[in-house]
Here is the input.
Amino acid sequence: MKRTFRFVLMAAVLIQCLSACKKEAYPHALRVADSLICVKPDSAVTLLSQLKDTLSMFNKSTQMYYRLLCIKADDKAYIPHTSDSLILALIDYYDVPGRRTHLTEVYYYAGRVYRDLQDAPPKPCIICRKQSNECLKAVTTTCSI
Here is the structure.
């Protein structure tokens, strides 16, 4: 009896721990677009443009992830960025404790955006690259076992 109780208790604790560590699940279409970006970026751009009308149904986190995927897909499809307003909004959103899951990637693409805006000085690119490296080091340090 005690053995069964311990097993059930351990299973409950394990399930609770795993559910607390669960990453936020994004809609299936966004996950498909994310997986297409490196393989077929043009298809990802098309899929993301089709999803634009349904964006208002999702929460802020999903909307910001969608915007990050749009920047990422455009970059991989060699579509030049024409403004930094979208990436600045992403930096403002993700540079908050508790929301830093994509911050390294956001800083990386900020550097890519500034590179595309050839009239911008190279300083923003360098700052974004340094920020990206610092975020990556922080994640590596935090997650090391």
